[in-house]
Amino acid sequence: MEEALMERIKYPNDKLLQHEEQHTLFWENFNELVADFKKDHSSLAIVKTINKALVDWFINHICKTDKAIGAFVNRR
């Protein structure tokens, strides 16, 4: 969805590709964490790791990268 918007607004291609890669890496990592959780859901370490991954994603991706897309749209 974001990538379709980025294409439609002519967001710089290098940033679009970087954005797609960030999503891919996040989901690969998150799916591994979920698999680990399903194997041993009682592990506090896994729960903390999942929590950290989600917080990092929110802070670094949503609050920075996605916000930059909004700023790009507002400048147009």
From TrEMBL:
<keyword id="KW-0479">Metal-binding</keyword>
<keyword id="KW-0408">Iron</keyword>
<protein>
    <submittedName>
        <fullName>Hemerythrin-like metal-binding protein</fullName>
    </submittedName>
</protein>
<dbReference type="GO" id="GO:0046872">
    <property type="term" value="F:metal ion binding"/>
</dbReference>
<dbReference type="InterPro" id="IPR035938">
    <property type="entry name" value="Hemerythrin-like_sf"/>
</dbReference>
<comment type="similarity">
    <text>Belongs to the hemerythrin family.</text>
</comment>
<dbReference type="InterPro" id="IPR012827">
    <property type="entry name" value="Hemerythrin_metal-bd"/>
</dbReference>
